[in-house]
Amino acid sequence: MIFDELDREMRIFETSHDHCVLPGLWMVARLDGRGFTKLVREKLQLEAPFDKRFHDWMTETTRHLMNCGFHVVYGYTQSDEISLLLAQDETLFGRKLRKYHSILAAEASACFARLADYHAVFDARVSQLPSVNKVVDYFRWRNEDAARNALNAWCYWTLRGQGQTPESATRNLSGLALSAKNEFLFSQGINFNEVPLWQKRGSGLYWVQKEKVGHNPLTGEDTIVLRRELLLNSELPMKDDYSKFLQKLLES
Ligand SMILES: Nc1nc2c(ncn2[C@@H]2O[C@H](COP(=O)(O)OP(=O)(O)OP(=O)(O)O)[C@@H](O)[C@H]2O)c(=O)[nH]1
Ligand SMILES: [Mg+2]
To answer: 18-200, superfamily in CATH?
Structure first.
């Protein structure tokens, strides 16, 4: 068997279905923790419905993903998921989808597991979006999902705290309108309006230019230089203001 022939023949099986994302399409990767309901409660014994330490690990993992070689314009995390908007002209790995799926999932898993000091795994998928409007819609979608899940989680864990089983808490909440869930919490002394924004709306990370004082060793003078820094925003604007915020971020 001649190695070069075998190599050529076998590679076809590996690469013939490789999908490359078309130029011009925006890529948004979403990483989601595998089986985190159990991991967070039973193995890590974190607080329910929300634990600040867990959210900090998620924002730190997002920061890592924005610094590991991909051109990520915006990172967003809520619950156990992370969304990453890649630059429209991203060319890394020839835009080969399998590279984005596998490397981003691996980087997220390794980083989170190190922070939590426990085996943890993320899956990854990539949306291929045709316009800025669809990119804005995508992030509005995840942001609204965060708000709905937070309301549900607060109701669920309040009922559990009153001694209800998982089944009866779920049954009691099914079919309840948003307003009824808010009223139920209020009747239990919890004003959902006052729940921290990061729980209801997640956190966003994006690049800003910061002025720094640099020292020029040749002239001996101090000079002002511009440095790119990642900013963590845990009080994101809401609803239409969030759309405007995203549009502005994409124009800059
Ligand atoms: N206790 C606790 N749970 C959290 C926190 N943030 C997210 N979660 C839980 O993480 C889970 C995320 O939902 P899913 O991704 O649908 O559930 P999963 O168990 O990870 O399932 P798969 O993603 O399908 O593998 C939900 O059960 C949330 O309640 C937190 O701060 N504290
Ligand atoms: Mg999950």
So the answer is: tRNA(His) guanylyltransferase (Thg1) (3.30.70.3000)
